[in-house]
Structures are given as C-alpha cells and as structure tokens.
C-alpha cells in the first residue's frame, strides 16, 4: 500500500514543514513557469501579445479560481473523513467529488467560451489586443477539463497528507510547458495560441502523474457502490466547494473591475498591470502555500477533534507567512524597476509598474496572513465566512478604485488591493478565534462529563 500522511499525530512543526516545502516548490514552479511563459511571450511576440495574455488574467482567475476553490472545498470534506479514519465515507467523498467535478467542468467550459467575447468588450479591452485575448481565452477555457482534473487529483492527495506527488507532477509539467512555449513561438512561429496549447498539454501530464499515485493508495480504491447517489455527501461537498469557489470568483469580480479601469488608462498601463500581477502572484506564493498547508492540517485535526493542534499549526503557518512578507515584500519595495524590467521592454510600462509594486510590497502582510487565517476557518468546516470575506474584498477593491482612480491614477490599483486584503484579514482573524475558542470549550465540557 502506498503511504498516506496522517497530520493528526506527531510534532506539529515537523509535520507542517514537511508538508509545506514540497507544496511550496510545487506552487513556485507553477508561478515560475507562468512568468517564463510571460517572458517568452513578451520577448518573442512583443508587449502587445503580452498585454493580450495579461488582459485575460482576471477572467482566467474568475473561471479557474472558481474550479480551484471548488476542488479545495471538496478536499476539506475528504481530509476531515481521513482524519476521523472513516474510510467508507472517505471513498464516497472522493467518488462524489469526481461526479460533481465532471458536471461542473461541462457547465464552466460552456459558459466561459460562450461569453468570452462579450466579457472582454465589457472590460474595455483595446482593439489592438482583443483578437489575441480571444484566441488565448478560447484555448484555455476549451481545455478547462485539464485544469480541473489536475486540481482535483492534487487536492485529494493533499487531503491525504501527500504534497510530494503534486511537486513531481509540476516539475514534469513545468519542463513540458517551457519547452513547448519556446518551440511554438521561436521555432513554429505561432502567436499566443502556442503558449495556450502548451499550458493544456502540460496540465494533462501533471494530471496523469497525480492520478497514477492515487491509484496506488489501497484505502481509496473505489468500487461501484462508492459512486452511488448520496445526497447528504453531495450537500457536504458542495457546502464547502461552492462557498470556496464563489469566494475566489467574487474576489475575481473585484479584480475585473480594477482591470476595467486599468484598461481605460491606456495600453501601457495594461502592460504594466499584467506584469505587476504576475509578480504579486509569485510573491504571495509562500504564504498561499502556508494557507493550503493550514487547510489540510486543520481539516484532518478537526476531523480527529484535536483542536489544540490546530492552534499550534496556526502559529507555525503564521511564522512562515511572516518570513515570506519580510523577504519578498522588501524586494517589491526596494527593487521595483529591476524586477519589472525582466518582463517589460518599454521605459513607460516599467515606470508605471514601479508605482504599484512598492505600495503592495509594504501591505503584503495583509494577504499573507489572510491566506493562513482564512484557510484555518475553511479547514474547520466554516466556508461561509471566507466567502463573505471574498465579498468584502470585492467591495473594497471597487470602492477604492472608483473613488481614487481620478486623483491617484494607477496607484489607486495598488491601494485597492491593499485595502481589500486588510479588510478580509480582519474578518477571518475574528472568525478563527471565535470558532476555535468555542470548539475548545465544547471539548472541555465533553471531557468533564466523561470524567463525571
């Protein structure tokens, strides 16, 4: 039997770090090959093609972020059943997740392809780049099944405590992606369709690697009975999955509004914002990974009713987020022109990006700590609060950009992100503290009754 990894036993810091680092490398590789894609597109096809791909970032986050939230939500239920050692429910949860994922993939693919052009027009996309944005988007959304299948397989593995197999999968897909990007652009002389197709092929490769590992784990060998209709299981999975998916998508709506205002400032601003968001996603990655780690750790221990371990896990994950903030926030503050110049060619877009990066670098702690607290709340099975925090993020982005873009210009986009992070962080901190204290009191009450 291939090993699973029980996060409810053993030294907390050792378990978390052993889970965190492979997952960090996985996420960093994803970000690095995304930046490599950007650099290859920018240097090989020019800033207009780069802007076209970057212009799709808020839309892809809306759709793909929904699917990631969905599968991460499913993994909470899976991890809780694994932590409780209820293997029958564990198999039913995985089988039900597969069925739900298939249905939602079909729906998301149809909606995203049908409404892509209208949405790009609503975002005030420049005529110079709209055709390339459409071409890139049709391929990415048409291949959405590859993204969802990978995310589902990786989420199940992480719910079972395995963060190493997704790392192996991403190493392979990163190599495939970068090689195919270079071949399609520099050898085959394609446009943006080359990198889009390369992304789909690379994700299919990573799906295959994760699926092979899942097949080797005997406790989750699925049989026909596991796929039977279980409405209570569907309800539990969708409670977590839809809430987390909506949280991501609601947050993306706020980002799309910001993108609309950026596009209205001119093409140079679209180019700069595209690169800024690439770096922001990269520099958030360690704390985001700490959040994923917190989710898996909290879910398993919540299922095992080991609430004090959740508190210990929070401290370790917050420590990781703090180190990430100090190191990477400093890069954004002190070297904005240097890092912007790695992907941008023109002096104007580089100067514009340099307005954004230091502001977000200073306030990066907001999103770094948000990842940890929000994931802890999700892992304990309370997805509604993080969803509400997603609504709060959206509202803060919209309010700040609408009120201040005329006076602050492009800097308003940075302040919009900062305000959104800090507001959502405060909500999740309060929720985490209240929920954990309540669970600890309930545990003490039951223990006293057992003694009596």
Task: List the keywords.
mainly alpha, 0% strand, globular, 452 residues, 18 helices
Written overview of the protein:
The protein is mainly alpha-helical and 452 residues long. It has one domain. 85% of the residues lie in helices and 0% in strands. It has 18 helices and no strands. It starts with 11 loop residues before the first helix and ends with a helix.
Shape: globular
By DSSP (H or I, 4+ residues per run), the number of helices equals 18
* Rounded Rg: 22 Å
**Secondary structure: helix percent:** over 70%
Q: How far from one another are the termini?
A: 42 Å
Q: How many strands, what sense, and barrel or not for the largest sheet?
A: none
Order of helices and strands: HHHHHHHHHHHHHHHHHH
pLDDT under 50 segments (min length 5)?
445-452
Report the average pLDDT across residues.
86
Strand count: 0
Derived from helix and strand composition plus strand pairing, the structural class reads mainly alpha
**Number of structurally distinct domains:** 1
Portion in strands: under 5%
Topology:
Layout: H1 12-45, H2 47-55, H3 57-83, H4 87-114, H5 116-122, H6 130-142, H7 144-159, H8 164-187, H9 193-215, H10 231-265, H11 267-283, H12 285-303, H13 307-334, H14 336-341, H15 347-362, H16 364-379, H17 384-408, H18 411-451
């Amino acid at each position: 039997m291939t090993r699973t990894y029980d996060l409810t036993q053993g030294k907390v810091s050792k378990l978390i770090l052993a889970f965190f680092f492979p997952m960090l490398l996985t996420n960093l590789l994803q970000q690095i090959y995304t930046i490599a894609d950007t650099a290859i597109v920018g240097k090989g096809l020019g800033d207009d093609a780069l802007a076209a791909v970057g212009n799709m970032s808020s839309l892809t986050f809306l759709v793909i972020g929904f699917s990631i939230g969905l599968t991460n939500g499913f993994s909470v239920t899976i991890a809780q059943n694994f932590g409780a050692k209820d293997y029958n429910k564990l198999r039913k949860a995985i089988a039900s997740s597969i069925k739900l994922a298939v249905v939602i993939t079909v729906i998301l693919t149809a909606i995203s392809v049908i409404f892509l052009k209208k949405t790009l027009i609503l975002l005030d996309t420049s005529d110079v780049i709209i055709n390339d944005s459409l071409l890139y988007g049709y391929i990415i959304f048409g291949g959405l099944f590859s993204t969802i299948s990978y995310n589902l397989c990786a989420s199940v593995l992480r719910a079972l405590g395995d963060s190493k197999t997704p790392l192996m999968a991403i190493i392979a897909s990163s190599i495939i992606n970068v090689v195919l990007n270079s071949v399609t652009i520099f050898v085959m002389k394609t446009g943006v369709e080359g990198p889009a197709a390369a992304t789909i092929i690379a994700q299919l490769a990573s799906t295959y690697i994760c699926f092979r590992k899942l097949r080797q784990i005997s406790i989750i060998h699925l049989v026909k009975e596991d796929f039977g209709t279980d409405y209570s299981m569907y309800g539990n999975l969708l409670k977590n999955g839809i809430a987390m998916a909506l949280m991501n998508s609601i947050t993306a709506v706020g980002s799309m509004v910001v993108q609309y205002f950026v596009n209205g400032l001119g093409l140079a601003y679209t180019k700069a914002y595209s690169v800024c968001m690439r770096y922001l996603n990269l520099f958030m990655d360690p704390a985001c990974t700490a959040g994923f780690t917190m989710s898996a750790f909290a879910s398993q221990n919540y299922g095992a009713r080991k609430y004090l371990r959740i508190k210990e896990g929070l401290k370790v994950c917050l420590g990781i987020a703090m180190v990430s903030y100090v190191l990477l926030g400093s890069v954004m503050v002190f070297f904005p022109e240097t890092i912007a110049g790695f992907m941008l060619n023109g002096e104007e877009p580089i100067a514009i990006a340099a307005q954004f990066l230091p502001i977000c670098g200073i306030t990066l702690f907001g999103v770094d700590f948000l990842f940890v607290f929000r994931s802890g709340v999700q892992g304990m099975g309370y997805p509604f609060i993080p969803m509400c925090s997603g609504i709060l993020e959206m509202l803060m982005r919209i309010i700040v950009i609408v009120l201040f873009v005329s006076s602050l210009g492009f800097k308003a986009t940075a302040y919009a992100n900062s305000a959104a992070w800090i507001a959502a962080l405060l909500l999740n901190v309060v929720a985490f503290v209240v929920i954990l204290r309540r669970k600890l009191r309930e545990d003490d009450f039951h223990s006293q009754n057992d003694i009596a």
